Amino acid sequence: MRYVTHLPCTTKEEEHVVIPMSDGVRLSARIWRPTSSDQEPVPAVLEYIPYRKRDLTSVRDSIHHPYIAGHGYACVRVDLRGTGESEGVLRDEYLEREQSDAEEILAWLADQPWCDGSTGMMGISWGAFAALQVAARQPPSLKAVVIASFTDDRHADDMHYMGGAMLSDNLAEAGTMFAYGTCPPDPAVVGDRWRDMWHERLENTRPWVLEWLRHQRRDDYWRHASVAEDYGAVRCPVLASSGWADGYSNAVTRLLAHLDVPRKGLIGPWSHKFPHLGEPGPAIGYLQEVVRWWDHWLKGADNGVMDGPMLRTWMQDSVPPSTAYEERPGRWVADPSWPSPHVHPVAHPLTRHRIGPPVEQGAGTESAGSGDALTVQSPLSVGQFAGKWASYNAPPDLPYDQREEDGGSLVFETEPLTERLEILGSPTVELDLSVSEPVAMVAARLSDVHPDGAATRVTYGLLNLTRRDSTEQPEALEPGRRYRATVQLNGVGQTFPPGHRIRLSLSTSYWPLAWPAPEPARLSVYEHSSTLTLPVRPPDRPDDTPADPFDEPEGTPPLTTTRLTRPEERWDVKRDLIGYNAELDIVKDGGTVRFDEIGLEVGRRAHERYAAVADDFTSVSGESTWTMRFRRDDWDVRVVTHTRLTCDKEDFLVDATLDGWEGGRRVFSRTWNERVPRDLL
Fold it and tell me: Residue 417: which domain range?
């Protein structure tokens, strides 16, 4: 990262600006803008998230907002209601109130004397969700958006459910927001009201996992704010990016395929990071691309921003399996549109543990009555080396060598490749199958098998087989009956070298990445009538992107902080061969950091634990514990949250606690103990 101190515009910062909402709630904004904007108004760019602008995102914000402001924009960072110094209570994600607040913020910005009336929205993760969702509401001042690591479909492709199977991140993210949504505002900003504002949050929150568990099907709860319900509602230009190591590797190409507005896509090797901070590397000069985007769509500059390919992706080279990478070798490739004319589906039949040679599209599957069945009933241990659903490049959250996982899976493999093969997009597995239980899932994993036998997971997909035809109206399976089901794997760009093999692994559990079915199920897959389809992209196209299409990453110098205690990161897989207990224990402790400019000390510690006993599918449990601490002089406040999710064959059981501490004394405590029926899950 090259830190830039001399920019086209000198800027000023307003640390706490109050934006009034129509219901009387006041939201807190931080604004960076050119000093000249008092006389010469500029467009405004909004980032709108719940992650505390004054402290927890302040270092990251200080790298990109002053940079963009220095190129002639008013950059505005607003905390959602109920977070940071914004009044009110944060009750759930992406609610109608959240989006109407955003529309009011944009109208307020457009009406400021330093704004020329044009606005944009940008962000990563929640901020990208917010920008895309608000774009679909077509506020009059919003002229373009820039989004990273997002989804357009809240049920099919978010951290809650995948293919109708419930992800453990449904619990983990709920635990995160249970903590973030109950933190106090800073009394240095809001004064003596801080305690009343804090207790309003404590008294009116509840574990979000309860609401997310009550909607196990695709229903109106998930349809709300899912842009996939009506792509035509988005009428402004979109610059969309993500990374192959992120959980959100699919939405960029879906937007390119379905939107009917000027759009560009970018997918790198990154985890859940902005591309200019991209890990694994290489990071890119993303902020330069963002400024060009704003210059064209908010200022009307004729700068050729829409020239060149619609989609640029990082074609990853083969690497040994590892739980973390500093860099992913590869190269940039270019596609003029999506679906790309350069990518062609190639179907391979599955035969006797082999992935057969390609067949012509529409051929290669025999009648439903032909072929023998290969069977598998996976142990709960399959999935312990799966990594996180969305990597944050926080070691070691990427998948490890798949050989142990494959021992409990049904495996199909090609012969050693005789020439390089590259894929770009989402592989699919079409299965002719039967199962032994009314509720069952299948996890499909695609791996790059090295000549020495090491297996690097390339991509994967999940399917709750009761949702094989519909996530809105699932149906119990009839044991022994033959069904056809298609598993879509996450999108990826990957090279398989000569001498390597491609492996497809199928398992009936993938714990703890996904919650298992109520009972172990035996899966039978009928060969010859099941296929793996790969999105093949011929290598070395002459019209591909140049080797270095992006500048070096740039940003403004980050705020200074002082580390007071050391961070701790732990990812332990434990197995007890007497009691047959298995456990994945994850600690992410950022230590205590002092934000030097405001003299505030902040500590964050997250502890996740996922456990099971032998192959008892009702013994699985997940726990998320967070501690958040804020301290300055004699002000010392702590929030401790704990959420535990267990199950039996009929229900999910949620046990949660919330404790607020002030000056070493517990001043608030609440407990939840609730059951939620399982719905073919």
Answer: 344-536
